[in-house]
TrEMBL record:
GO biological process, any: thylakoid membrane organization
Pfam families the record matches: ThylakoidFormat
GO CC annotation: chloroplast thylakoid
Record keywords, A-Z: Coiled coil
Source organism of the structure: Dioscorea zingiberensis
Entry keyword annotation includes Glycoprotein: no
Coiled coil: 240-270
Name of the protein in its database record: Protein THYLAKOID FORMATION1, chloroplastic
Phylogenetic classification of the source organism: Eukaryota, Viridiplantae, Streptophyta, Embryophyta, Tracheophyta
């Protein structure tokens, strides 16, 4: 089966853990550090233990393994390997994005992820299972799947009503989506938390696609209006197109495999039926001869 390329992202810096200090009233030799003696001030004859925990405002993110475990607990049914392999890779990548210190959810990011998910899960045997997997995936990242769907739909409807010119002219206009786009532009300019990602680039691509903005200069203008580095977007869109191409190839191979196995089962069933008929005819002939 065709291999599916993975998307690589920078590793996530983890928040530091709280430290613990132990102050003893009497001298004590630690069994773990032979020969090292700790002597406390003569303030009290009683043992005093003080713990300095991490500040309350420091959030320690879950590990990748914990996120994957939450996903598996939320959706316990088996997932065909062609889908599961890519899903597991995506959830690792999105975990790293999700728990960056500069991460802040936005609608373009949501549109990008929903676009990738729908492309990946196209042709999944059950629509109900496909939606259940989506919910389990987003909830494993401690986010709201309903918000992802709602924001993606909102941007899609907005983009369909735009032209190439109006799409990039959002800073001069008023509206709900225009306000969302302005907020992204401000944060990307350094006035708030913003973390560029490949899902964001794919969200931009989807906006252009729905607005039928095929001129390459439109993407450049949109990136400029949003204060996004266009070469990064170009690179990530190339990766996305390559991924889609390999997904198509892999799904074609899977379909061929399924059709081939189905044909084999039908042939085995037919052969077994023929054997049964032959056996029955033979028994009838034996009875008539008797």
């Amino acid at each position: 089966m065709a291999a599916i390329s993975s998307l690589s992202f920078a590793s996530l810096p983890h928040a530091s853990e709280g430290r613990v200090w132990v102050v003893a009233a009497r001298s004590y030799v630690s069994p773990a550090f032979s020969g090292v003696r700790f002597r406390a001030p003569n303030l009290s004859s009683r043992l005093s233990v003080r713990c300095a925990a991490a500040p309350n405002d420091v959030h320690v993110p879950p590990t990748v393994s914990e996120t994957k475990l939450h996903f598996l607990k939320a959706y316990k049914r088996p997932i065909p390997s062609i889908y599961n392999t890519v899903l597991q890779e995506l959830i690792v990548q999105q975990h790293l994005m999700r728990y960056k210190r500069t991460y802040q959810y936005d609608a373009v990011f949501a549109l990008g992820f929903v676009t990738v998910y729908e492309q990946l899960m196209e042709g999944y045997p059950s629509n109900e299972d496909r939606e259940a997997i989506f919910r389990a995936y987003i909830e494993a990242l401690k986010e709201d799947p309903e918000q992802y769907r709602k924001d993606a739909q909102k941007l899609e409807e907005w983009a369909r009503s735009q032209t190439a010119d109006s799409l990039v002219d959002f800073p001069s206009r008023e509206g709900e989506v225009e306000s969302l786009m302005k907020n992204i532009a401000e944060r990307a300019a350094g006035k708030g938390n913003f973390s560029y990602s490949r899902f964001f680039a794919i969200g931009l691509f989807r906006l252009l696609e729905l607005a039928n903005a095929t001129d390459p200069t439109v993407l450049e203008k949109l990136c400029s209006a949003l204060n996004i580095h266009k070469p990064s977007v170009d690179r990530d869109l190339d990766v996305y197109r390559n991924l889609l191409s390999k997904l198509v190839q892999a799904k074609e191979l899977l379909k061929e495999y399924v059709d081939r196995e189905k044909k084999k089962r039908e042939e085995r069933t037919e052969s077994k039926a023929n054997e049964t008929v032959t056996k029955c005819i033979g028994e009838d002939q034996f009875v008539s001869q008797v």
